[in-house]
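[09:14] KT: can someone run the structure on this one? pasting the chain below
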Amino acid sequence: MISEISDFSLRHRASRMGETAPRRRQGAGGLSLTMGKRVSKVLLRCFWFQSAITVTGSVLVGALCFLPGSEGVSAETSSEGYPIAVTLKIGGVQKNLRSWVGSDFRKLKWLSSVEKDPGTGDRVSWRGIVMGDLTEKSLEGLPADQKAQVDLVLLKTKGGRTGLMPRAYLKQYPVLLSSKKNSKDLGSWHSVMPWTSKTKILKEGAPLEALFLSDVTELQLTNFRDEYPTVFLKMRTDPVAMRGEKLFVVSCLVCHAMGNGPSMNEISGVEPLNRLSRNGHPVIKGTPAMGDREKRSLATYLEKFREQNGVVVQPKVTGTAASSVSGG
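[09:31] RB: done, structure tokens below
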């Protein structure tokens, strides 16, 4: 009996071992398969995640390159061959402040803007450095009293032209030195006034069209009194004449004191002043028409200028150019 029980126990254990062994092997295989699937899923997710990051990064970088006002490496790099000299002239003494060359331009603020081309009237895209940023960074390190004396920036071109830019404009408006026009390299720096994007500048009364200059190579930081002392009145007690003086310096000096229009002698004559008082100044592109107050102020200033400088305008003689004599 005992032997039969023992035999039964052995056979029962053997049968259980025979059944469980394959089941354990099957469980191990199932575990391996499950783990493999999980690893594959993890790897697949990592692959898609990495791909998504790469694509998103590429799109983001590409988008940033085309954002208006962003710094475009291509624009900066292509402009490194166009140097700009910045000089300071105060009290008749001139010195070099800084020469901007090569990668120096990458330290400046770059902007894109759409402005009307004064030559064609078409809206075009300009890209360049902000002139105000260039000016202020060039003045860094100077004593405060010298900085305060600078109220005029002379833009000098390769061809010998000069533009008068009040420093106040550079502080208020994003005037550009552009190296690209409609994404095409201009081959030099061109001054661009924001008269389309920032229409408030039109109220300044300056001849903005004359401030679009090509091939700018130098910025001279100076002041109106040093450069054009004779246009300032010695007697400074008439507020109407003072308004006229300011108007003349900002709006008229660029033409009438630099050979681009009738001389100061001519425009301060009796008959020119009468015409100015009646009709104002002929309309100039980029400037608003004169109001009665501006006409009166400017005429008063020019009359005081004539009295101060003893200007006498000779009448024109048929067949010859008008001549003017300054006495006193």
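[09:33] KT: thanks! Confidence is low (pLDDT under 50) at residues 1-6, 17-26, 52-73, 313-328.
[09:34] RB: yep, looked fine to me
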